[in-house]
Design a protein that fits this description.
two-stranded antiparallel sheet, mainly alpha, extended, 2 domains, 175 residues
């Protein structure tokens, strides 16, 4: 492996952008289309593939990313209960009061403060929070596929023959 290929690999491992990585490893390349094509070709080189795989494995180990941990996070999202975000009065709980499983399903919170005074029960009026949740359907789909719960192929048992009856009716045509 050349020094430039190693630079390409190290840069590619940062964001998996082959065009950007190629332009850094080979600074004389100015055109994006050229860098895109050349970077794509480099990704088929056996030495480059091996180096990138080793780099990914090192990152995975360093970050302690395991199959079990990833599945646990998907399960948290898939089975998260939105009701746990709210207190008994229907207001959003303080973020510090959420359990870890509930906090894991939140991908963002937007607060909009427009103070309009206090209501009869002394609650502030005009304070809004928008909560963005992780994609529950996608997490369920990924878990189901991982565990083989969804069959994408039809299996045919050839040991047991089956019959297919097709009835075709002739229709009359009038001109």
């Amino acid at each position: 492996m050349t020094d430039k290929q190693k630079i390409f690999c190290d840069e590619y491992l940062k964001d998996f952008n082959a065009t950007r990585a190629y332009k850094i490893a080979y600074p004389n390349c100015k055109k994006d289309n050229t860098a895109k094509s050349a970077g794509s070709r480099l990704l088929t080189n056996v030495d480059v593939i091996s180096y990138i795989q080793q780099g990914k494995e090192k990152l995975k180990n360093k970050m302690e990313i395991t199959q079990e941990r990833v599945l646990q996070e998907m399960a948290r999202i898939a089975f998260g209960d939105i009701r746990k975000l709210y207190n008994k009065n229907g207001g959003l709980k303080n973020i510090q009061d959420l359990d870890d499983d509930t906090a894991a399903i939140i991908t963002g919170i937007e607060s909009v403060e427009e103070f309009d005074g206090y209501g009869e029960d002394r609650e502030q009026i005009g304070y809004t929070k928008k909560v963005k949740m992780a994609d529950k359907n996608k997490a369920l789909d990924m878990l189901g596929k991982y565990f083989g719960m969804f069959k994408e192929k039809v299996e045919v048992n050839q040991d047991k023959p089956f019959e297919v009856n097709i009835n075709i009716k002739k229709s009359k045509t009038y001109s």
